[in-house]
Amino acid sequence: MGTKNIIIDTDIGPDCDDVGALAMLNIYANQGLCRILGVSHCTSNPYGAGTIDVINRYYGRPDVAIGTYYGEGFLTDEICMRYNRFITTHFPNRYQSEQPQEAVGMYRSILAAQPDGSVEFIGIGPMNNLSNLLNSGSDRFSDLDGRELVRRKVSRLTMMAGAFRCSSKAVADRAERIGNGKIEDMAEFNVACDIPAAQNVAANWPTPKAYLGFEAGLIMTGKSLMVLAPENHPVRLAYKLHGLSESGERYSWDLLTVEYAVVEGCRHFRESARGYVRFDDMGRTIWRLDEGGTDCYLELALAEEHIIEDINALLITPPRQTCRMAAVR
User: Fold this and answer.
1) Which residues face 9 on adjacent strands?
2) Secondary structure of residue 300 in the 3-state scheme
3) What's the rounded Cα separation, in Å, for the pair 281 and 192?
4) Distance (Å, whole) CA 98 – CA 66
5) Strand, coil or helix: what is 256?
């Protein structure tokens, strides 16, 4: 099994599981399972790129390419800055006073330089950046348009998106209780934030796609960070500042998405039969079974307590080098 080349797109800010997921990706890279080619931020929040840089630096990667969304007013309310403003302003990073390159340009420059079929994308936020990549035209990096560039360079897209009627009645019932409605009526957050973008990616992304839905991520992880991680650990601080759980735990949508994408044959998951995913104009998930399809959705294959134990143990893996926390201002 070779080392995977990964580009990840995240909305880091509205929820803290993005931070845990990015930490896991860095830990996997330290273990030799993947190489992080770039990280893109898909909201207008000015503290997203800085937080990404802080996490990468903490795990020994101060030079990873980072891009961001240049649109205005997308997910910039105070609730989306509960932790990322503090992390950006209290840890060393490149983006305390400026923003990085635009995300689509970063994607195109990276993809153009890679061998054909050698890159995997992970999406753990709204799909505006991914949609904009598909819609992009030729540029100084490549004569190919976005869709053809993706077709040539990318082998798979794994996304946290949608909601699926899974085989476990207990999992489906829990999702409907937490989501306050039938799975078939749910507009999952990453889809609902930009429905046209989600529709474009679902219909036009030209590689196989794997979806981890709302229902599959409803297990709580992160407690190990509160108990065992240093107080100035940026991931621990993000979970603490997010503040939706007294224990510091949070649902694991994005962490599980990264785990499936990177760990080949991970025993935590089973794939559905193949088919096609689409999203309607209300953001609801449409799943069509088709043996010729290129999409699947994921279900958990082990007892949840074992998956929680494994992820919590991974989250407290020491970095190969740490950053030094700046003075609190």
Assistant:
1) 40, 123
2) strand
3) 9
4) 12
5) helix
For all residues of the chain together, what is the average pLDDT?
A: 96
Token duo for residue 318: 């020491």
d(CA 177, CA 318): 37
Compute the distance between CA of residue 4 and CA of residue 102 in angstroms, rounded to an integer: 24
pTM of the entire structure? 0.96
Q: Three-state DSSP class for 247?
A: coil
User: Is the separation of the CB atoms in 207 and 157 below 8 Å?
Assistant: yes
Q: Which pair of structure tokens corresponds to residue 35?
A: 């190489």
How do residues 246-265 score in pLDDT, each as one tens digit? 788 999 999 999 999 999 99
Residue 131: which residues within 8 A CB-CB, separation 6 or more? 194, 196, 197, 198, 200, 201
Q: Tokens 């759980």 belong to which residue?
A: 245
Neighbour tally for 87: CB within 10 Å: 24
**CA dist 189 to 14, 88, 126, 163, 300, Å?**
10, 24, 8, 10, 20
Gap between the Cα atoms of 91 and 326, Å rounded: 5
How far apart are alpha carbons 241 and 238 in whole angstroms? 5
Q: Which residue has the tokens 């935590």?
A: 268
φ and ψ of 123, to 5 deg: -120, 120
